[in-house]
UniProtKB/TrEMBL annotation, chain A:
Stretches assigned to the Metalloprotease TldD/E C-terminal domain: 224-456
Protein name in UniProt: Predicted Zn-dependent protease or its inactivated homolog
Lineage of source species: Bacteria, Bacillati, Actinomycetota, Actinomycetes, Geodermatophilales
InterPro entries from the UniProt entry: Metalloprtase-TldD/E_C, TldD/PmbA_N, TldD/PmbA_sf
One Pfam entry name: PmbA_TldD_3rd
Biological-process GO terms, alphabetical: proteolysis
GO molecular function terms listed in the Swiss-Prot or TrEMBL record: metallopeptidase activity
Keywords linked to the UniProt accession: Hydrolase, Protease
Species of provenance: Geodermatophilus nigrescens
UniProtKB/TrEMBL annotation, chain B:
Stored InterPro entries: Metalloprtase-TldD/E_C (IPR045569), Metalloprtase-TldD/E_N (IPR002510), Peptidase_U62_metallo (IPR051463), TldD/PmbA_N (IPR035068), TldD/PmbA_sf (IPR036059)
Biological processes, Gene Ontology terms: proteolysis
Pfam families: PmbA_TldD_1st (PF01523), PmbA_TldD_3rd (PF19289)
GO cellular component terms, A-Z: cytosol
Domain Metalloprotease TldD/E N-terminal: 34-98
Gene3D superfamilies assigned to the protein according to its UniProt record, in alphabetical order: PmbA/TldD superfamily
Organism domain of life: Bacteria
Name listed for the protein in its UniProt record: TldD protein
PANTHER family referenced in this protein's UniProt entry, alphabetically: CONSERVED PROTEIN, UNCHARACTERIZED PROTEIN TLDD AND PMBA
Stated family: Belongs to the peptidase U62 family.
């Protein structure tokens, strides 16, 4: 069967368009995964998919309106274009209407090349190593659970303004959870990766084994505020929530934590006492992400009119001060502020910090060392108060040494408030957000110390 | 309502040819079981900001998947090209995946038997939302949003509607051939008020639940949208002026608009057998309700009767047959306060020593493997139980909770914390105005053990969500939960402003 290429589909859609503007894009994706429980593989899969998206822009006289239609496979392009034009005609004028982007961003990719692909073979070295880890765990009397996934998506974007952009996005993640056979002890290690070549199963397994050892001694502690060392994964899950809330329009309208009492937003406010920088950069080594925007539906933080817009490196917080918020071009025009797009990675750094997590534990007289956070949900948008659980390892540190494992806690904390209370930050390293890695894997964070983390109640869960 | 069949445009796909190609190839390759799913999922989302359409996105996901059991090991492969050749390729790939996995597998997959079924099933709805012109849908949402926005004190309105039409063809090597179609809809309206001077803001959302119905949900008057939209601005104004709650232990009357989510988190997920056995241990988590407690674990007070079903009319988890060809059923999960049942699929049914699956396998897309997902898990009302006024009337001092908002529960389903859309003080058996900054926090068995009264059938409502998450790769599932209002004694109440350290 002859199969139209992604590029041909984009060109056909643009050629079929009778609208005032058109953005067409195709996402080719392949994915392979392995899942395991109790030292045995459970589910697995190899998937291939293709999504074709057409966004039409129609000027009905009162202003430009838009409609988006998406289909999988190899749809009838003429039908797809007609449907999206009909949707645009049925919609009222869009509030975010601005001329479509016509300037090609840097790093537009090789339009003509075939899509990049992955397959189950990406696990050729990983799977036997995992088998060895299963064997070792079995002989120790431990159980391993977890998941490994690799995906490759190639996105081809074409616009009626002449842009032809392509981006290959590899995404990989591994989570390894170790438990005692009665499930009473549970620990975790995880990494993000682009290609699995940098994933060491022995390293992950050693981390799990070490923490299971720490958990041999159990200490029960009550709820309360504790000096707490958060490792990079836990920091990433908190910072991501703050990042996802950084919408300029919401702030300007007085409806998120970055709104200023009396009007306007808090850009320029000091959020962190330490000179921390929170930033995104599509070219961050190991965390490479698309250098241009691909948007199927407008929201307060992205606009279909901005498809193809360059997404350069941006500091959200610089030296502790709020510096930028996410702002589509239309809202930027309305508020005479710069257009700023979100990027699919996030880095938190303290300048010249060198301490590792182990160093920070070593410098702790009495406190808690966390492993990961879980089930994070917003309680109060006014302060961005979040709730969640500690998971897979809360350790008591005494005299610079881990002396046992503590029960889990439910915590209530705001990442914005926490920024102001971080008393020490270590060296930034690549990490995998435990809570959000279904959606976000490209993060680099430091371990941090918080003198008074709010553990609201005890969770009996292990 | 007319009995209907699945849309002709779906039945016109080469379903039988794909099934014969994939299943024949799988049997030739020595599979002890194979199934093929063809799915077409149409999704439309309309989102409005301040009564203007912000986005209208219309998606369709069409594809096929082959799942096999080969020498006791799962294999799965999915694609988007609907040809017999591709179906054969997927069967071969699924077997190859099983072979790669075999070296790392110690547990042999066995499926609880299910008699073959053949037929069609269509969910209960009147008006297919995809047959209604987009302009009409946008116009209705715009008009209602404008109404809210025009009200005193309302500064912003966020609103929208998501609707889904899911079509499935399932065939397996035992001879089952089913075709199904279901429709669901989730409209939402949120009013927001901002006090510019103090920087304070507060919102209130409609408590109308997402349901397994069509566009008529918005138009046929069975849900009183006009009344709900009319009362929100006043309720929101009252909320902004309400006193902050005194933390401590309080008696709670929980409205079904809030209680459904507590049931979902603390009973629904806790009684999934795959979780209880450890198959979700690294991700969604496990459960305190382990199989050794079946028939003896005291889950809650004797008033607690929870059922699982995939049959409730308009339920979001309601089906004809599940994604393993198992017929929809209804069964007890908690009876007289004791754990008596689990939700299972065919593999976990076997592990749990059950003769038959109760039909809880579901895959959220043609790309994903079916896993055990939630039935409609519902708390049954007391036949002679009080109405809402009767429940509130029985409380001297307490709090009445309406509508869901924030939710979080631990990985073993013990410790949870919920907020709501509004909280009322109860004094002397009557509502005495709203409270602010309220969250309730409890341990599952303590909470259900403190249930002192269960409302009667007049208080029973179906709540639910489109976006219940589980499994890796992540899957979302729609599910409903029916429940009456109920009274809980001595529940821990937090003040969320104090929790934030202010």
């Amino acid at each position: 069967m002859s199969r139209l290429s992604a590029q041909e589909l984009v060109e056909q859609a643009l050629a079929a368009s009778t609208a005032d503007g058109c953005v067409a894009y195709v996402v080719e994706s392949t994915e392979a995964n392995l899942r395991w429980a109790s030292n045995s593989l459970t589910t697995n899969g190899a998937m291939r998919s293709r999504q074709v998206v057409v966004v039409s822009f129609v000027d009905g006289g009162a202003g430009m309106a838009t409609g988006t239609v998406a289909r999988t496979g190899t749809p009838d392009v003429a039908e797809l274009v007609a449907a999206s034009e009909q949707a645009a005609r049925d919609a009222g004028p869009a509030e975010d209407a601005v001329p479509l982007v016509s300037e090609a961003p840097a790093g537009a990719g090789d339009w003509d090349a075939d899509p990049a692909e992955t397959s189950i073979e990406v696990f050729t070295e990983f799977a036997p190593a995992l088998g060895e880890a299963f064997g070792a765990a079995r002989s120790r009397g431990d159980l391993l659970f977890g998941y490994a996934e690799h995906s490759l998506t190639t996105t081809y974007v074409g616009t009626s303004t002449g842009l032809r952009l392509r981006h290959d996005q590899p995404t990989g993640r591994v989570e390894l959870n170790g438990k005692s056979t009665d499930f009473s002890r549970s620990v975790w290690a995880g990494v993000g990766t682009r290609d699995f070549r940098d994933v060491s199963v022995p390293d992950l397994a050693a981390d799990v084994e070490r923490k299971l050892g720490w958990a041999q001694r159990r200490v029960d502690l009550p709820a309360g505020r504790y000096e707490t060392v958060l490792p990079p994964s836990a920091v990433s899950d908190l910072m991501l929530y703050a990042y996802w809330t950084m919408e300029a329009r919401d702030a300007d309208e007085g409806r998120n934590v970055f709104a200023r009492a009396g009007g306007g937003n808090r850009i320029g406010d000091r959020l962190a006492q330490l000179p921390l920088t929170l930033r995104s950069d599509p070219h961050a080594p190991g965390l490479e992400a698309a250098p241009f925007q691909v948007v199927s539906a407008s929201s307060g933080s992205a606009s279909v009119f901005d498809n193809g817009m360059a997404t350069p490196a941006v500091d959200w917080i610089r030296d502790g001060v709020l510096t930028n918020l996410v702002r589509p071009r239309a809202w930027a025009l309305k508020t005479t502020a710069p257009a700023v797009a979100a990027v699919d990675n996030l880095v938190l750094e303290a300048p010249e910090a060198t301490a590792s997590l182990d160093d920070m534990v070593g410098a702790t007289d009495r406190g808690l060392l966390l492993t990961t956070l879980w089930y994070i949900r917003e309680v109060d948008p006014q302060t961005l108060l979040l709730t969640g659980l500690t998971r897979d390892g809360v350790f008591l540190v005494e005299g610079g040494e881990v002396t046992g494992a503590v029960n889990n806690f439910r915590w209530n904390e705001s990442p914005v408030d926490l920024l102001g209370r971080i008393s020490e930050a270590g060296r930034t390293e690549r990490t995998l957000p435990r809570e959000w890695n279904d959606w976000f894997t490209r993060a680099a964070m430091p371990p941090v110390r918080v003198p008074d983390f709010n553990m609201s109640s005890v969770s009996p869960a292990s | 309502m007319q009995p209907r069949d699945v849309d002709e445009s779906f039945l016109a796909l080469p379903l039988s040819a794909l099934a014969e190609a994939a299943l024949t190839r799988a049997v030739d390759l020595g599979c002890e079981h194979a199934d093929l799913r063809v799915e077409r999922i149409r999704t439309q989302s309309l989102n409005l900001r301040d009564a203007r359409l912000e986005s209208l996105a219309d998606g369709e996901d069409l594809g096929l998947a082959v799942r096999v059991v080969h020498e006791g090991t799962w294999g799965f492969a999915a694609g988007v090209v609907l040809t017999a050749a591709e179906a054969v390729r997927l069967a071969e790939q699924a077997v190859a995946v099983a072979q790669v996995s075999a070296a790392l597998v110690t547990d042999r997959v066995e499926l609880a038997p299910e008699p073959p079924h053949e037929g069609a099933w269509v969910s209960s709805y009147d008006v297919d939302p995809f047959e209604v012109p987009d302009a009409d849908k946008t116009a209705l949402l715009t008009e209602w949003s404008e109404r809210l926005l025009a009200a005193d004190g309302v500064e912003h309105v966020t609103s929208g509607c998501m609707h889904v039409k899911e079509q499935k063809f399932y065939a397996d090597t035992s001879g089952t051939r089913t075709r199904q179609q279901r429709v669901r809809i989730a409209p939402e309206f949120t009013a927001l008020t901002v006090d510019r001077a103090t920087g304070a803001f507060e919102s209130m959302r409609t408590i109308a639940p997402p349901v397994g119905r069509g566009w008529e949900y918005l138009t046929d008057g069975r849900y009183d949208w006009a009344a709900e939209l009319a009362e929100i601005p006043g309720l929101l104004r009252e909320k902004t002026k309400a006193p902050s709650v005194e933390p401590g232990r309080h008696d709670l009357v929980v409205d079904p608009s809030n209680l459904w989510l507590t049931i979902h988190e603390s009973v629904g997920h806790a009684t999934e057998l795959d979780r209880a056995l450890g198959y979700e241990a690294a991700y969604a988590g496990t459960s305190f309700a382990t199989p050794d407690g079946l028939g003896s674990l005291r889950y809650g007070s004797e008033l607690m009767h929870v059922t699982g079903d995939r049959t409730a009319e308009h339920g979001l988890s309601t089906i004809g047959w599940d994604d393993e060809g198992v017929e929809a059923q209804r069964w007890d999960i908690v009876r007289d306060g004791v754990l008596v049942g689990y939700q299972v699929d065919r593999n976990t049914a076997r592990m749990g020593g059950m003769d038959r699956s109760n039909g809880c396998a579901f895959a959220d897309s043609p790309r994903h493997v079916p896993v055990q997902r939630m039935a409609n898990v519902s708390l049954q009302p007391a036949d002679d139980g009080p109405d809402l006024d009767g429940l509130i009337g029985g409380v001297e001092r307490g709090i009445y909770v309406v509508g869901d908002k924030s939710w979080s529960i631990d990985m073993q389903r013990y410790n949870f914390q919920f907020t709501g859309q509004r909280f009322y003080r109860i004094e002397g058996g009557r509502l005495a105005g709203q409270l602010r900054d309220v969250a309730y926090q409890a341990t599952t068995t303590d909470f259900w053990g403190s249930m002192r009264a269960v409302g009667g059938p007049s208080t029973y409502r179906l709540g639910g969500a489109f976006n219940c998450g589980k499994a890796q790769p992540g899957q979302v599932a729609p599910v409903s939960h029916g429940c009456p209002a109920a009274l809980f004694e001595g529940v821990t109440i937090l003040n969320t402003v104090q929790e934030g350290g202010r």
